[in-house]
Amino acid sequence: MRDLPSYTARGRYYGPASSQRHQLSDYRHILASGFLSRDSTWTSSPLLGHFERETETGAWNPSSVVQWGCVMPDEHVEQTIATYDLIAPDYKLTATPEMRTWEEGSMRRFAGFLPGKRVLVPGCGDGRDSRFLASLGLEITSFDLSPQMLKIARAADPTGNYILMDLRDIETLAGPFDGIHASGCLYHLRKPEFLQFVSGCRAILSPGGVFYLNMKEGQGERFEDRPGPRYPGGAEARERLQGKRFYAYYQRPELLSVLQGFEILHEQKLIPGDGGFEFWVREPITPE
Ligand SMILES: C[S@@+](CC[C@H](N)C(=O)[O-])C[C@H]1O[C@@H](n2cnc3c(N)ncnc32)[C@H](O)[C@@H]1O
Q: How far is C-alpha 259 from the chain's CA centre?
């Protein structure tokens, strides 16, 4: 029996809950360009299989996969954040009147659904949405992983609560929050990470809490170097906001399946920018 190839990645594990996981030493990592999910939407992630050892020889038995998970290397996050750090001073170019009208309308709708005032703003960027939500009388906690974006957000709002944090760590936040307003950031996660983010949201939302998100429409996941032709801010923004960023694209049924269990309060097609979807969903209130 041949030994299995071993693969080590600097990244995060997605798969069975850690309580069900065997010791890491029980795993053999294999690099595969296959699909992990039932609906084949998790593309070319390194797969991580848990195999059993042959009792007599101690060799790994390749036909004995007990569990599958995957390791997501961190590169897409590191690269995307490096780009946001570079473009942070020019990011204000995207705040066109058309964009702000649309975004502020979405935030007013979000505020109208909330059961309370505590709101989390993940991937807050330069804090323009956090400031607007605060102006509606809400108590805002914001976070972003780009130190340069946060620097701008804090300078514009010195009393605001801005945290340096990764979207992939959402479950480490102590809730509850009455609302989570995730605009223009979750498409920078790989699909399993997005799934994990949504389950993290469920854990920290209060009963009846509202989750808002917008996502880009399309297929697959990839790095992109240049903003598309409909990027807000016109030619100047397209020129100055270049840099490698990672994007995941979705079809509506995919998003609906991730949001299963939430009550859909409202949804609409995203009009400005490159197109996509907006959802306002509610964590159901479960009877005692
Ligand atoms: C397109 S900007 C949107 C900013 C803001 N939400 C807005 O709509 O103006 C995306 C933001 O997500 C942040 N971001 C991307 N990946 C992240 C991650 N893994 N953790 C935290 N923030 C992230 C970026 O630093 C950037 O500020």
A: 13
Structural domain containing residue 264: 76-282
Least confident of 56-60, 173-177, 266-270: 56-60
Report the separation in Å between the CA atom of 125 and the middle of ligand 1, taken as the mean of its atom positions: 5
Q: Where residue 196 sits, what CATH number does that domain have?
A: 3.40.50.150
- 79 contacts 63 by C-beta, under 8 angstroms: no
Which residue's C-alpha comes closest to atom 10 of ligand 1?
185
In sequence order, what are the residues at sequence separation of 6 or more whose Cβ sits closer than 8 angstroms to the Cβ of residue 285? 207, 208
Residues 201-229 have pLDDT tens digits of: 999 999 999 999 999 999 888 999 998 88
The tokens describing 102, both together, are: 């649309």
Mutating to test ligand 1, I would choose from 188, 190, 214, 245 the residue with most ligand atoms within 8 A of its C-beta, which is 188
